[in-house]
Write a structure and sequence with these properties.
This protein has four helices and six strands; from the N terminus they run H-H-E-E-E-H-E-E-E-H. It is α+β, with helices and mostly antiparallel strands and about 150 residues long. The chain has a single domain, classed as GAF domain (Beta-Lactamase, 2-Layer Sandwich). Helix 1 runs antiparallel to helix 2 and helix 1 (about 10-20) runs parallel beside helix 4 (about 135-154). The model has no long low-confidence stretch (mean pLDDT about 95).
Length: about 150
């Protein structure tokens, strides 16, 4: 594992962190820790949900206890799975069908991990701030998810 340069884009740091790694779970654990610390000003909760038996099941994460399963099309994570696209929610209290794993969450971003055109999991970040996520966060998370798909699902 290489040392992480906090001045470079997060997606590059994640790629360096997982380079040569073969275990998905330990890599996702380190990725969630890196994102959570790198974006500590916006990240209240950061983690992965992986598709298992046709539902999203909680994977490695950083933050308080979380919901363990999410159904297709339900909540922000389920909608990102259904639409196969990143979703940014400026105010989760105005998102119809939002699943409140924590009452402290006010905004959220979810990026799908796409392998061969199919969603295999999602990367979810919650913030206590309203409107915490930008197109910069979206681009970085999409690059991170693409790297995960290439490295572990190809």
């Amino acid at each position: 594992m290489q040392s992480i340069n906090k001045e470079q884009p997060l997606s590059i740091s994640v790629k360096q962190l997982t380079e040569g790694e073969t275990n998905l779970i330990s890599s996702l654990a380190n990725i969630s820790a890196l994102i959570h610390s790198h974006w500590s000003t916006v990240s209240f909760w950061c983690g992965f949900y992986l598709i298992y038996e046709n539902q999203l099941v909680l994977g490695p994460f950083q933050g308080p206890v979380a919901c363990t399963t999410i159904q297709f099309g339900k909540g922000v994570c389920g909608k990102a799975w259904e639409k196969k696209e990143t979703i940014i929610v400026k105010n989760v209290h105005q998102f119809e069908g939002h699943i409140a794993c924590s009452s402290k969450t006010n905004s959220e971003i979810v990026a799908p991990i796409l392998a061969n055109g199919e969603v295999v999991g999602v990367l979810d970040i919650d913030s206590e701030q309203f409107d915490a996520f930008t197109s910069h966060h979206q681009k970085e998370l999409q690059l991170i998810c693409a790297n995960i798909a290439t490295q572990f699902f190809s």
